[in-house]
Design a protein that fits this description.
The chain is an alpha/beta fold and about 230 residues long. It is built from nine helices and five strands. Helix content is about 50%, strand content about 10%. Bound molecules: thymidine-5'-phosphate (TMP).
Length: about 230
């Protein structure tokens, strides 16, 4: 079966630690699939719709130390409920392949690493997106140190820490390099480990890709998986 026929109407997610190169890989795959004549819809989570982008601004531009982890988790879910209804489902119906930057797998890893219960995350996810889960989730894996190096700790997060509950920890990437440097790294290691061990009940196929190579090498690994798997 051609890649075009295999991927028509499918929903594919790219996820992984910060700095894993998701954006580059989505772009490379989108170019390849478009060249084969397949309709490609790009999506990103959080965001990807006008309403979702507003929610993203709240999540990434707000003093998270004032936000309860449950509120944060709901906001991620709210953004993707909108994304699924407004962008993903219509694109799938139209026969496009949807390439989405992050999804519920990210909540499992990031909010999971902050101590939020994984069962709850999946339950909320089911409520938010119904049956619209990806058929395939790529986890692009890089060691946390490498991810830090690649992002240069992009200054798009507030850098604020939760003060009130040590168990909740740091939820979004911290831009401050300070005496607490080892703590965010430790948090990001937990995130990585949770990506590598998503729960068996996570819907759809999960494929872990070594993303330490060059963009072209990683792209080839993704294509090999797409050739091999049944979706
Ligand atoms: P990104 O644009 O790099 O994907 O930024 C999104 C940030 O939000 C990233 O640090 C991961 C984090 N995040 C969560 O904590 N939970 C989630 O559910 C999602 C989708 C992202």
């Amino acid at each position: 079966m051609s890649l075009k026929d295999k991927l028509t109407g499918k929903f594919i997610v790219f996820d992984g630690p910060d700095g894993s190169g998701k954006g580059t890989q989505i772009r490379l795959l989108a170019e390849k699939l478009k060249a084969e004549g397949l309709g490609v819809t790009l999506a990103r989570d959080p965001g990807g719709t006008e309403i979702g982008d507003r929610i993203r601004q709240v999540l990434l531009g707000y003093d998270l130390s004032k936000m309860d982890v449950r509120c944060e988790t709901f906001l991620f879910m709210a953004s993707r409920a909108q994304l699924v209804g407004e962008a993903v489902e219509p694109a799938m119906k139209a026969g496009h392949v949807v390439l989405c930057d992050r999804f519920i797998s990210a909540t499992c890893a990031y909010q999971g690493a902050a101590g939020y219960d994984m069962g709850r995350i999946l339950e909320l996810g089911r409520f938010a997106v119904g049956d619209t889960w990806p058929q395939l989730t790529f986890i692009l894996d890089v060691p946390s140190e490498e991810g830090f190096r690649r992002t240069g700790r992009k200054p798009h997060h507030t850098g604020n820490r939760r003060k009130h509950d040590g168990n909740q920890g740091l939820l979004l990437q911290d831009i401050e390099i300070d005496a607490m440097e080892s703590r965010p790294l430790e948090y990001h290691r937990k995130v990585r480990n949770l990506f590598l061990a998503l729960p068996p009940e996570y819907p759809g196929r999960i494929e872990i890709i070594d993303a330490t190579g060059s963009p072209e090498q990683v792209h080839q690994s993704l294509l090999e998986v797409l050739e091999r798997v049944d979706l």
